[in-house]
Amino acid sequence: MSILDECDALLRTGEIAHIRPLRDTDRTALHALVDHTSEKSAYLRFFAGGRATAHLYMDRLTGPGYRGHAQVALLSGRLVAVAEYIPDERRHSADVAVLIDDHVHGRGLGTLLLEHLALDAAARGVGELVADVLTGNGTMLKVLSDLGLTTTREFTGDEIRVRIDLRPTDALTAAIERRDHEAERASLRRVLSPRSIAVVGASREPDRVGHRLLGNLLDGGFPGPVYPVNPKATHILGLPAHPDLSSIGEPVDLVVVATPANAVLDVARQCAGHGVAGLVVVSAGFAETGPQGAERQAELLRICRTGGIRLIGPNCLGIVSTGAALNASFLPHPPLPGAVALMSQSGAVAAGLVARATTLDIGISSFVSVGNKADVSGNDLLEYWEDDPQTTVIALYLESFGNPRKFGRIARRVGRHKPIVAIKSGRSTSGDRAVRSHTAAAATPDVAVDALLRAAGVIRVDGMQELLDTARLLATQPLPAGDRVAIVGNSGGPQALAADACERHGLLVPELSPGTQRRMRSGLRPAAAVANPVDLTADGQADELEFAALAALEDPEVDTVLIVYTPPFGSGTERTCEAIARVASSANKTVVACVVGRDGTTGPVPVYAFPEQAVQAVSRAVAYARWRSRPVLPFVPPAGTDIQAAQGLVEEDLSHHPQGRWLDPVTAARLLGCYGVAVAKFIRADSPQEAALAAAHLGFPVALKATGPVHKSDVGGVRLGLRTSAEVRGAYRAMKDTVGREMTGAIVQPMAPDGVEIIVGAVRHPSFGPLVMVGLGGVSAELLTDRAFRSPPLSGQDAAEMIRELHCAPLLFGYRGRPVADTVTLEDHIVRVAKLAEDLPQIAELDLNPIVVGPADAVVVDVRIRLALASPVPSPLRRRLR
């Protein structure tokens, strides 16, 4: 398998390099590369021969008989680097070398090319790369040692032989993530914090988008030069207009385009020749309009990539960065400055969120409407916002994922110190499930999204109001240390609703400690209830509310104080809100408020119109804090797995069945055995007589199961508790009559010991990759829909959490006197199935149903695995723009 295909990738400086395999037609460009290379660089690469040797070598590189693998890099359409490795099959190694134009040194291009070569060589079975480097070439020695792979050095006179072990390491993963992050940040810095801006399509007519864009830029106080571009005007909004970009005569970082779609490509071509860093296309008429528009969008992206330009849109509302006084949007009202970064794929949703955020006093650090998301996506923006000092909370409205696996990796890292709140629209079913496994039937697209977001610690919400409710709590308050809530207020009804909501959302409303209750009684009116909820009665004044809330905050059994006030009672809304603000100013715990009928903020405290809103926001924050507090443990693959044997088994089976198939029980059990999962003993039988002999050999009682149907129980393909040979023969004949030609034989198994029936499964989603499921098994697998999903890789801790999410979990932990089940073995099965599904993309569906979990073991009673041809999984270590 080769990964040396064409792609675009970011350099350390934020520039876009085009990487592709070497072509025979590159000969002239390779000689030009040598001519751009200094004698010193040529000497360091080709040793004593220098440039003369370099020219001769370029002819061999593009000539017949070349046995290596080479790739080139282009910047702005010009070939600026070549990298290659030449395998030595006798030694399981390959010689590697790189030549880079002197003018682009120091931009991370050599490291990028070596990363790609190393991944490709490893995919072809090469064990190590070998580089011969002159002792004076400190730059290349540092590049090789900083890759993140294990290297050794051998000194031979003036040369150093560097051996690079191609087995991936944690250091390599960390180094690639760090380099990718640095490049993403650099590529967007001049887009979201530009020094100068041009508006192409600026208009003198107030109702035109180009006029509103220019007006918003000026009204927002952008400190740098702003250039209107309109060939039919001399001045717009007091600024001199330019006929085109080339007439500006000064560098422009950001260009905002509001022209008709058919003029956008020409504008992009002009930008490519003027060093523009970012292009924001608000114009519609691209992929959203059909095939012709999609072609136009693809060409727009190609122009931008070749020109090294990051593209936002097309068909978007624009961008805002309040810290940079940048409002390059046509939003009707500018957002307030603040700490929430917002991205939206929908312009209408974006406008609604920004408007509502202003009403709620929620400040925005930056806002990006990505529109058709041809280039810049949520993944890019997460990388940028991770280090943005003005952003403390990230809010996303998503309609699709361009690269969901990369999103998960980035979000998991970012979420460790900045919460991410997301709406993902488009909840839908998986369509026809009639012939699928239980796991595949349950793994709807929305389930896949949920598993991805949950694993990454993203706070998924269901609507725009909840997004803003959750974001403003996270932006203004410390995270709750636990799930215990004290409710303090002046009206029993709303407080009771708050307590009910806490119970629904898994929050506790504990009775306050005796000391806290005594303190409250000493300062509150006799009619007040002080256990929790703390009800001051309608006559309670603002000072009493403040006193009670402060007392609750000091209780060691309280993590969050929810203040519920119903106007106009007590001291009135204004004085009460002042008291709430004072409470929060001195608190080191989470404080939220419900002022019935009113949404907004009071000082640093988020205020919700209804108690259910407040409780829901708190519950989201509690769940996120719990995820964030989990220790980040290195992933340790399960012991006793044989991936080579499993791959060989799968490849052999697919060579005989290229259309894919459900594996027979023997092959399925062998495949599971490669990953240390044993299936309960069974014997295959193709007739009533064979079944009876098998049962006698295994010992009665036995189970008889048809091997053909996917869902055996649904068609009468399972008979349990057979105690004699006659019963087995009769059951086989009856099953054959019922199931018919689909039966294809049967297996005979000893009856499993008593236990809880659990299903563990896996399914490969075309975009999200493998998903792993655990749930209530047996014939109830789909009836009760009690299950939990995750995306691999899974640790034992992940598996334990999945089990405990199930409604049936108490059955495994001693419910009503039942014996405690062997969940440790069950967790191990889940981890191993996850590794199997992750390693082998050809596994389309897998069900272990049921696994009978008893006090001493978790026995896999039945297994179904469907194989299908699959494209190789892109390496997560390969840096590239999607």
Question: How would you summarize this macromolecular structure in one to three sentences?
Answer:
Helix content is 36%, strand content 23%.
Layout of strands and helices, then pairs:
Layout: E1 7-10, E2 16-21, H1 27-35, H2 39-46, H3 50-61, E3 69-75, E4 78-88, E5 93-100, H4 109-123, E6 128-134, H5 138-145, E7 151-156, E8 159-165, H6 170-192, E9 197-200, H7 209-219, E10 226-229, E11 235-236, E12 239-240, E13 254-257, H8 261-272, E14 278-281, H9 291-306, E15 310-312, E16 318-321, E17 326-329, E18 337-344, H10 347-359, E19 364-369, H11 378-386, E20 393-398, H12 404-414, E21 420-424, H13 438-442, H14 445-455, E22 459-461, H15 464-476, E23 485-489, H16 492-504, H17 514-523, E24 534-535, H18 542-554, E25 560-565, H19 573-585, E26 590-595, E27 600-602, E28 605-608, H20 611-629, H21 643-656, E29 661-662, H22 665-673, E30 683-685, H23 688-698, E31 702-706, E32 718-722, H24 725-739, E33 746-750, E34 756-765, E35 769-776, E36 787-790, H25 796-805, H26 823-839, E37 843-853, E38 858-860, E39 863-867
Parallel strand pairs: 5-6, 9-10, 9-13, 13-14, 14-15, 18-19, 18-20, 20-21, 21-22, 23-24, 23-25, 25-26, 26-28
Antiparallel strand pairs: 1-2, 2-3, 3-4, 4-5, 6-8, 7-8, 11-12, 16-17, 16-19, 27-28, 29-39, 30-33, 31-32, 31-33, 34-35, 34-37, 35-36, 37-38, 37-39
Helix pairs in contact: 1-3, 2-3, 6-11, 8-9, 11-12, 15-20, 16-20, 17-18, 18-19, 21-22, 23-24, 25-26
